[in-house]
Please model this.
Amino acid sequence: MWERSLGGGASGYIIMEMEVAQDSIDASTLAYIKREIGKLPDKSIVEDYNNKNATNCKMAADKFDSTLDVRLIPKGELDAIFDLDGWNTFYEKFPEADGLVWLSPVGFDKSEEFAVLLYQRQFGGLGDPGPTT
Model:
């Protein structure tokens, strides 16, 4: 179901920003996680996530093992698209795209049994992206 949650339709493809910006799990994020899952994550997950997201990094296309067509686009190209006319220009350039996705590097606990990542998805127009399970 991972592919469905990213929005991969039968003919669509996923556009992802190639550069991943710095991020960290802060107190408000920990409070959100506790509300959603009923407990705080292991400290090792938070430390690993924050260490891996302390600097900007680039996604690698060859790291995706998916049946989806994933296209990594440089941040400068996406910025130029949205500076012109936003989603109209985006869908002119990528007419079959299901939207735009951002994924962070993954933080793992010491046993590598549990993980946390940031997942964001945006798409233009009015519509329902469907289930994200």
Remarks:
- Residues 1-11 have pLDDT under 50 and may be disordered.
- The longest strand covers residues 97-103.
